[in-house]
Fold this protein.
Amino acid sequence: MRHSAAVWDYRAAIEHTKDWNGMDQVVLRNPQGASARVSLHGGQVFSWRNEQGEELLFTSSKGIFKPPKQVRGGIPICFPQFGNCGSLEQHGFARSKIWTVDDNSPPLHPNDSHGKSFIDLLLKPSEEDLKCWPYSFELRLRVSLAANGDLALTSRVRNIDGKPFSFSFTYHTYLSVSDISEVRIEGLETLDYLDNLRQRERFTEQGDALTFESEVDRVYLSSPNAIAILDHGRKRTYVIRKDGLPDVAVWNPWEKKSKAMADFGDEEYKKMLCVDGAVVEKPVTLKPGEEWTGLLVLSAVPSSFCSEYFDLERRGL
């Protein structure tokens, strides 16, 4: 389905559909033919395709696509906890809940609407949620697909309780790569990180770029607002831009852990890399009535054009 940019109507570029379990989904498209697919189960983006139809996000072939089990792949929303650093289930409960379409969200600004499609989702706590995390909140998520194919996720957490609460938040982004041995990350040099393979001990990154030869499970702290993931095999670079997300979580399970996960193929670690915009080290605290916003923008560009593009992004130009 293609639309003329001259008569672009973002509403016509939004398709409401269902998966094979009957779960509601939303498909976004832009005039060039790029697309993104979002499930109301977890508010999870699990497909992002460029205008050539190439899938840019990884989803495991052994993923269990049936609620309440979360799909292994795409971009799960980890809230109000990341990992097992707390009393809640791994990565919190937001990714396993059924979200609703938010019909009361503001429209796109006229200067920002050309060729863009978006959907707004909303999560409020159930009585069950309040038993394990006793705070009332509203979590709003806008997923938008730009005319140039960029995928943006904007989350807003509002405290509608009578007391303060604190939370962690992560866009747990599974990127599709040609081969993990052909990938490096730029933008994390000299940063401190917490190593989850060593009881969250703190280290400092020493290399010029992060490459992969074994399992990695780290949270890089006070990171820049733009980083690049270079995939030499596909001559493609992912650029991650973010705001309100000071940390970056990086994960690849490698061979041994892959074989121990029921919803992950033994060799699939070679084809994926998680690089997450996150708030982990210093959780966000909201007083009653306060709101936090976290923005993640994903771009996929040819590596030949990336150096100048990435340099401009890092300088905020």
User: Anything to note?
Assistant: DSSP finds three helices and 21 strands in the chain. The first helix runs from residue 127 to 132.
